[in-house]
Amino acid sequence: MDNRSLSDDGFLESIEQGLFSRGDTDHNWHLRLAWIHLKRAPWPIALAEVVTTLRANQHIMALNERYHHTVTVATLRIMSQRLNEQPITDFAEFKQHNSDLVDDLAGILSQHYNLETLNSATARRTFVSPDRKPL
User: Fold this and answer.
1) Superkingdom of the source (predicted)?
2) In the prediction, which pLDDT does 1 show?
3) 40-55 pLDDT, tens per residue?
4) Alpha-carbon distances, residue 74 vs 18, 19, 77, 85, 128 (angstroms)
5) CB under 8 Å to 134, separation ≥6 — which residues?
6) Rounded Cα–Cα distance for residues 44 and 15 (Å)
7) Domain limits of the chain?
8) Using the 8-state DSSP alphabet, how is residue 119 labeled?
9) What is the DSSP track for 40-100?
């Protein structure tokens, strides 16, 4: 399912109705989920909503294989900071102004984390604080 034509409410409703397949849940899908929640609530609440949504849909997203809690927390924190600096109301515009989040999230995270730390089993299961530069 192509989510680009959906409104934010339609996107969330489609998730709740289980209309997305495993192939639909790419990096942009995750960024949009985070962006919607960050536009609606402060980042700690948005984080809780995103994590709840991802865990509730792990049968679709193969979360046991892909979910990484530290990456999720760090990404939402970075997105929250950027939204505070540049209040953009359209996801496509947000992606345009933050293409590094779309194209090189690993590079952004490497500014904050050593690869060994980020690749650890602990960082995958729970949040690990940055060991290079604070978020």
Assistant:
1) Bacteria
2) 63
3) 999 999 999 999 998 8
4) 26, 27, 5, 17, 9
5) 112
6) 21
7) 8-125
8) T
9) HS-HHHHHHHHHHHHHHTHHHHTHHHH--HHHHHHHHHHHHHHHHHS----HHHHHHHTHH
Determine the Cα–Cα distance for residues 104 and 27; give it in Å rounded to an integer.
11
> Which DSSP category does 18 fall into?
T
Residue count of the chain:
135
Q: Which residue has the tokens 């909503």?
A: 49
Work out the average pLDDT over 65-84.
92
Q: Residue 5 gets which letter from DSSP?
A: G
pTM: predicted TM-score of the whole model, two decimal places = 0.90
Residue burial 76-108, b: 16+ Cβ < 10 Å; e: rest: bbbbbebbeeeebeebeebbeebeebeeebeeb
